[in-house]
Every structure is written in C-alpha cells, then in structure tokens.
Amino acid sequence: MVTNAFVPADFVPPTSLETEGFRLEPLGPLHNESDHAAWTSSIEHIRSTPGYPDGGWPPPAGMSLAENLADLTRHAADFEARRGFTFTVLEPSVDEVVGCVYLYPSASPEHDVEVQTWVTATRADLDGVLADVVADWLSDAWPWKRPDRLGR
C-alpha cells in the first residue's frame, strides 16, 4: 500500500467538467495541434498569469509540435498513473483548446495539491472564471483539502 499517494486508491478522478463557457477533459496527444496553437499564440499572456512565477513555462522560444506531443504524452501518462492531472480547456462550440488546468502534488508541506491554470490571450475573459470554477470543483469533486492556487 502506498502511503504517499497523490489521491486515495479508491478515488475515481473526474474526467470532465462542463460550464456554459468551457469544457474540461483530460489533456492528451489528440489535442497536440490545438494545444500547441493555443499556448504559442499566448506566451507572454500565460507568463504573466498568476501561478507561473518562475518564468520557465511556456518557453519563450516555443517548442516543436513533436516536443509538444511528448509533453502531452507525459501529462496523459501522469493522469493514467494518478501522479498528476492535466485538463485541456476547450471552447465548447468549436472544440478548440483555449487553456489548461494542472493539478500536481505540492512540494510544500502546507499544501496537498498545486493548481495552475492558463487561458489564451484571446480568451483572457475566462482567466478568473476558470480559476474560480476549478477552485469550486476541487472542493466538490476532489479529495484535497489544502490546495495551493498560486496567487489566485
């Protein structure tokens, strides 16, 4: 039995969240082109978003589609292994990526999950809404009690 599990063994992670303005689903390789287009169009906007304090992501020079695919594959593997949960934020009407939500273990003993969200510059109006909806979702549907919302 693993005692330092990110989520309890019997916990079934949610795989979707729908609102009027966006839909969340697990991020994976199938989102590669739309995800790549979303974040590369909004590097400066994302880097100025609360929760990205180190300036390491997104990379200012971007990355290739193949590198992005490897990143999405890693996130999907983390989800499957329950070591982290990354969701793509989709525009419901066109099924286009407009952001991401990352739920990973916190390095701080004061928190049990680190929460990061971003949206594209063209959907900046969703930024606070997404962060607040995710906060409520964590409280209602996830097992963590001490989230670090990284400045939200």
UniProtKB/TrEMBL annotation:
UniProtKB keywords: Transferase
SUPFAM superfamilies attached to this UniProt entry: Acyl-CoA N-acyltransferases (Nat)
Gene3D superfamilies hit by this protein: 3.40.630.30
InterPro entries: Acyl_CoA_acyltransferase (IPR016181)
A GO molecular-function annotation: transferase activity
Protein name per its UniProtKB record: N-acetyltransferase
Species of the source: Nocardioides eburneiflavus
